Amino acid sequence: xxxEQLTINQATVRQILFDQEYDYEQGSAYxxxxxxxxxxxxxxxxxxxxxxxxxxNLEVSNDGSASKWIIGDFSKITITDDNAQPNNNVAVYRxxxxxxxxxxxxxxxxxxxxxxxxxxxxxxxxxxxFLDLGAGTITSTPGKVAAVQxxxxxxxxxxxxxxxxxxxxRARGNITGVVDAILHLGNQNGAITSIxxxxxxxxxxxxxxxxxxxxxxxxxxxxxxxxxxxYDEYVKIPVKVDGVTPTLYIMAAESWQSVD
Length: 260
What we know:
Elements: E1 230-239, E2 248-256
Antiparallel strand pairs: 1-2
């Protein structure tokens, strides 16, 4: 048969393996493994307990002499170069959440890393995204090539009561003396055009919006003109530059005038 259905009820199964290049039936209606179908959801009903339809829970002893990967979920798709597929789309992992009414909290994807004790590690990264451009030429017109893209969008009538951002980065809890920066931007090798590239087509009130108790120390009271060439209220934003001992400042003022 080109398509077979396997049903397992209360059986101990150590492995389900698809390792033959059969002519599998294609289409969203014929997945190899399915909980519900692509077109129709499996109705769970009202929740009275936690519900996890798929679970991977492993406990592994850390052998310091070993150099192996421990991967809870591995997926890979290879696009071969013997058949051009310019109109196809590919995604290794594509979760989707449909919200039709209010709920306590909602995440498209949520991940926690919990650390206890003292130990060493080369890198500890919550989410690692690595885009290897290889050695060839990649043409992306009129699109773009990016390691990370975050879009927030909606209909013209969409409204949010409260704060709304396309991205949020913050340090939480008592992390005094631990976190060096909220956001680290760097260029390790080669030359790039810009560190920050802003393309703003819609209306924007502020290019930067500073708030919080720490920012209060940057502001000044209204004052007359002085040697800085600024008058009225202004802010001095402290800046650190490697190799420069004194603290430097970027200055913004309510208005400016020339000072002789």
